[in-house]
Amino acid sequence: MAKAKKVALAYSGGLDTSIIIPWLKENYGCEVVAVCGDIGQGGDELEGLEAKARKTGASEVFVADMREEFVSEYLWKLVRAGGEYEYKYLLGTSIARPLLAKKQAEVALATGCDALAHGCTGKGNDQVRFELTYKATAPHLPVIAPWREWNIVSREDAIAYAAKHNVPISQTTTKIYSRDRNIWHISHEGGALEDPANAAPDDVWMLTRSPNEAPDKPAEVTIGFERGIPVSLNGKAATGVQLLTELNRIGGEHGIGRIDLVENRFVGMKSRGCYETPGGTIIMAAHKELEALTLDRNLAHYKQKLALDYAELVYNGLWFTPLRESLDAFFEHASANTTGEVAMRLYKGNLQPVSRKSAYSLYSLDIASFTMGAEYDQRDARGFINLIGLPIQVQASLKTAAKKAV
């Protein structure tokens, strides 16, 4: 590509993006506009971020507070859909990338940039998520992906580059985990985790207590939902950020939300990572319990099938597509009656439903009771079974007749 004059960089202040600023200036001779989104990664990561970006060569720095947008327009849609990748991963990194890339593209267009850049590796899923979003939001801008161009081949090389160019970083050759954090989760990769035969070291975990060290007394939380969206905690209305922040605190204290996962990356390889999603784990579990009350069998089962497709779509970075929008329209309609409250008990890493209540509950005590009643005549079951079993009976009769004929 032609030499860019002004590049918008998706900037986090981590190892990769920290060294990309001087690398871009050195190799492209361009201005660098650093774009960072506050999606709840915490004050430590954001503190001094602008000063650091400018010190390492950025000419402009944009830090946008996108927490409420992230929760309401991305996370709550994920909750409503019930999206879990490969039945375990709650998509904390995947769901954030489209929002961050969209904001980066908006800043690039507003500031006259002629290229976009990111710090995703050539082996990871994030390069796909960022660049598919670029194609949807700023399709005419070329993309610079340093990990696909430079001669840095490892995190050790990146650390050495940072030292040579006086770039301040927190990573060292003995503390080399790659982490991504937002209000939904934190992920941990690299280091000892690269070998799936290794147990996750105790020092990996940051948001959650070990279940062995969690309180001996359980805690209970009640989450209120309206049309599949969390709206209250313990009977009090709360914004998305407030609700998640408090559930992260409580869930982390009780060791909720740890997973150790070998996953299938979109780019074709397997990878191993550890994830902590304390608040999100509680919310997703409560949402499932409420749906068990309010969805009929056919809708519930079909929604489960589409939830797998939705999770894969989010994981693969296909957020800004007609398919995702269409699926969201289905989930919104399917959740019309998913309103009510669910109480969950938290105890040493475990979650247990305590109470489920909804004005739209399809659960009828008169019908479900073992006692014979007017609402359900158990004698009707004979005809039902005979009709359902008719093909099975005919097939068995044919097999029996064939054996006798031999």
Short description:
By secondary structure, the chain is an alpha/beta fold.
What this model shows, in words?
- The chain has 406 residues and is an alpha/beta fold.
- It folds into 2 domains: 6-176, 3-Layer(aba) Sandwich (Rossmann fold); 185-295 and 337-357, Argininosuccinate synthetase, chain A, domain 2 (Alpha-Beta Complex).
- Helix content is 41%, strand content 19%.
- The chain contains 14 helices and 14 strands.
- The chain has helices at residues 15-28, 43-46, 49-55, 67-81, 97-110, 126-137, 155-164, 240-253, 278-294, 297-315, 322-334, 365-368, 381-388, 390-405; strands at residues 6-10, 31-38, 60-65, 115-117, 143-144, 178-181, 186-189, 219-226, 229-233, 236-237, 258-264, 270-276, 340-347, 350-357.
- The strands form 3 sheets. A 5-stranded parallel β-sheet has the order 3-2-1-4-5, sandwiched between helices. A 5-stranded antiparallel β-sheet has the order 10-9-8-13-14.
- α1 (15-28) packs across α7 and α10 (297-315) packs antiparallel against α11 (322-334).
- The longest helix is centred in the last third of the chain and has 19 residues, at 297-315.
- The termini are far apart.
- The model has no long low-confidence stretch (mean pLDDT 94).
